[in-house]
């Protein structure tokens, strides 16, 4: 095997799927997908199980629909939930647990630390913070002293007074990045998780969101179904 193939197989690197070309089932009954990796020649294509395609759910769903393959997003992941959820509200430990579990997969393996916001931002190191304020989750991407963004599922930071509260709380000027994919009013926990995952993926590519962030719809839908099991009031935008 070439050095480049060794690199593609490495668990330390992050790679982005360009196209899914074919599929087959191995002797154990596992479906494998032939992947063309972005930025690599076709001779470096590899066969991968679905669990290695985190972050490419939309491409995977499109391929499955075109080939009449049942789609069960994130079905191979086991989450360490303390107990089954019966309501729609989730706490900070569960949000961080889901982020930690999903970020073990290739596309979301972090090159930046994710942590709960406690009382201040780390001026020495860039980090992604999850903040629970007024029973609502916010994600703060602190990439440098001059580049700190805030995102939440419901765009609650449209409220100027709430934005001022958050800036006072963090002692930083915050730039709002909008999110338009949350439909339930109490789905902010699932939105926070998928927003953090997308920020990790963008940071791995050297990108910073501006204006609006878009996340894989399959991942977001899966997390809503998993974490917010009761009917939710529709979010008015």
Task: Please report the number of helical segments.
Answer: 6
Helix content: 25-40%
Mean pLDDT metric: 84
Quote the distance from N terminus to C terminus: 53 Å
The main pleated sheet reads as: 5 strands, mixed
State Rg. Answer: 19 Å
Share in β-strands = 15-25%
Shape: globular
> What is the string of SSEs from the N terminus onward?
HEEEHHEEEEHEEHEH
Number of strands: 10
Main-sheet strand order equals 4-5-6-7-8
Runs in which pLDDT lies below 50 for 5 or more consecutive residues are 1-5, 7-12
- What structural class results from the helix and strand content? alpha/beta
Number of domains: 2
Outline the secondary-structure elements:
Blueprint: H1 3-9, E1 17-25, E2 31-37, E3 46-49, H2 57-66, H3 92-102, E4 113-116, E5 127-133, E6 136-144, E7 147-151, H4 160-170, E8 175-176, E9 178-179, H5 188-204, E10 212-213, H6 217-227
Parallel strand pairs: 4-5, 7-8, 9-10
Antiparallel strand pairs: 1-2, 2-3, 5-6, 6-7
Please characterize this protein's 3D structure.
The model is unreliable at 1-5 and 7-12 (pLDDT under 50). This protein is 28% helix and 22% strand. It has helices at residues 3-9, 57-66, 92-102, 160-170, 188-204, 217-227, and strands at residues 17-25, 31-37, 46-49, 113-116, 127-133, 136-144, 147-151, 175-176, 178-179, 212-213. The protein is α/β, with parallel strands linked by helices. It has a 5-stranded mixed β-sheet. It has a 3-stranded antiparallel β-sheet with strand order 1-2-3, with helices on one face. A two-stranded parallel sheet has the order 9-10. The termini are far apart. The protein is globular. It has 2 domains: 3-66, OB fold (Dihydrolipoamide Acetyltransferase, E2P); 92-227, no CATH class.
């Amino acid at each position: 095997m070439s050095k480049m193939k060794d690199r593609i197989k490495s668990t330390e690197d992050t790679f982005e799927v360009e196209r899914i070309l074919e599929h087959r089932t191995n002797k154990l009954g596992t479906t494998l997908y032939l992947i063309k990796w972005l930025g690599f020649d076709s001779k470096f294509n590899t066969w991968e199980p679905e669990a290695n395609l985190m972050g490419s759910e939309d491409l995977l769903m499109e391929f499955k629909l075109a080939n009449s393959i049942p789609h069960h997003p994130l079905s191979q992941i086991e989450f360490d939930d303390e107990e089954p959820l019966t309501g729609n509200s989730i706490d900070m430990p569960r949000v961080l647990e889901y982020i930690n579990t999903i970020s073990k997969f290739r596309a979301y393996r972090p090159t930046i630390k994710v942590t709960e916001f406690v009382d201040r931002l780390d001026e020495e190191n860039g980090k992604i913070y999850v903040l629970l304020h007024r029973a609502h989750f916010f994600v703060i991407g602190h990439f440098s002293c001059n580049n700190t963004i805030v995102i939440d599922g419901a765009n609650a930071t449209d409220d100027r007074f709430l934005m001022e509260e958050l800036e006072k709380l963090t002692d930083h000027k915050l730039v709002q990045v909008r999110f338009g994919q949350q439909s339930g009013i109490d789905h902010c926990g699932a939105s926070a998780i998928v927003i953090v995952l997308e920020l990790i993926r963008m940071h791995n590519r050297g990108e910073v969101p501006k204006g609006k962030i878009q996340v894989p719809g399959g991942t977001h839908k899966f997390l809503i179904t998993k974490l917010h099991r009761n009917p939710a009031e529709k979010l008015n935008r």
